[in-house]
Amino acid sequence: MDSAYIEKNNLVERYLLDQLSEEQRASFEQAFLGNQELLDEIDRAEALLSALKRNQSALHRELPRQKPVFFQWLETAWVASTSTAVAIIAVGYSMWLTTTMEDGTNAVTATPLRYLKLDSVRGSTAESKVEADVPIILQFDVGAYTTINRFAVQISSETGVVAEVHNLAADGDDYLRVGLLSLSAGSYEAVLSTDENQPKLVWQGNLLVTP
Amino acid sequence: MNHKSHPASSEPLVCDTPDQLARRIASGDRLAESELVKTYSRGLMRMLRQRTKDTQLAEDLHQDTFCVVLQRLRSGSINDPTRLVGFMHQTAINLHIAVLRKEKRRQTFADSDRVAFEPDESSNQLRALLREESDTAVRLMISGLRTARDQEVLRCFYINEQRKSEICESLNLSEKHFDRVIHRARARFRTLIEARRKKSDEY
Predict the structure, then answer these.
(1) pLDDT tens-digit readout, A48-85
(2) Gap between the Cα atoms of A75 and A116, Å rounded
(3) Which DSSP symbol is given to A149?
């Protein structure tokens, strides 16, 4: 019984909640009996469980009612690489999209703003192009739109698709890695759609990269 | 949370394998007996507390289990020393079953007087401190949740004690999403606790 199996099957929590079969419970107990690291993990999970039970009223509080913010796109870091060095430079930009998804017709009601300044990632050099491996965090916050929970994103330049990711959860974080994108100033097209056999367009717009 | 007589941290313990320990104990090595207790005491106490839901009973069973295991090891009467962990585990379970049978025969009922004499948890300053620390961390963790649905996942799993499949179905979630919410909550809680401990260590 390795840690990946334990994690994947939520064995720690299920053990504490008495949700394991006798056989599973016995195996798990034998796995942790002399394993101090796993015992630490169980202690932490128990502390979390107890604290949540004591503070469960906090779980019922009303979340701040958001405008229908549908899609936030935060780029948190660039890993700019050269043959000899790797520089990690943090930049940030975001884009917002208001939407009326429930009507099923036109999801987009406002054009989101998103742009990125190359200056912020290329340092003092005068390069107008950055070779970069770009991890982008996608944050979905669909609020009431729980009927759709799988999305796909595609980013294209004039020369073709530079990034595509599927099976994005509706309100999860996902990393969209734009591998070694030769990023020049210019316009990129970003498309967010439902991830299904016949994808429905949710949002389409431009990612503007400025010098 | 950790019982005072049991090692609480993950500091490295013994390097001997269970069968090496068993052989050393059979040959009369008293140090090996201490190592055995040091290695397995905490885990044994954890499983007994979980099974009995009674710290006092768990303490007694913990003691009895080690008595039985050490006696068997000293006499060299454990057939397969590589199964030492399994033997210890089964011994603890058997002793617990014996207690349950005994209690059933006695037809005991909840002792309301005993409840009144339970020690006040808040009188234990360390425990109160740990509790306060966990409470603060969990409230911060909750406040950082992004959506009502993430809150709902935690409520269903930890408070309502619903099963993962049930939660995923009722909230229309994939298992991957469920795992992510739980993983994030745990990681955030751990980070917050560790940050608070680090801060208090600095003072």
Answers:
(1) 999 988 887 777 654 443 333 333 333 322 222 221 11
(2) 9
(3) -
Structure tokens at B60: 């007694």
User: In whole angstroms, what is the distance from residue A67 CA to residue B175 CA?
Assistant: 28
Which candidate from A39, A40, A49 shows the least CB-CB separation from B158?
A: A49
Residue B66 near residue B92 (C-beta atoms within 8 A): no
Q: A42: nearest CA in chain B? A: B46
Angle in degrees, CA A130, A133, A135, rounded to 5: 125
pLDDT tens digit sequence for A163-181:
666 666 554 444 444 444 4
Q: Judging by DSSP bridges, how do beta strands A201-210 and A115-117 pair with one another?
A: parallel
DSSP state of B156: I
CB nearest B186 (choices: A45, A143, A171): A45
Residue of A10, A42, A60 with shortest CB distance to B182: A10
- Residue A91 pLDDT grade (very low, low, confident, very high; cuts 50, 70, 90): very low
Chain B residue at shortest CA distance from A47: B134
Range with the poorest average pLDDT among A16-30, A139-153, B184-198: A139-153
* Chain A CB contacts of B179 below 8 Å: 8, 10
> pTM to 2 decimals?
0.57
Q: B40 touching A, CB under 8 A?
A: yes
CB contact (8 A) between residue B138 and residue A48 = yes
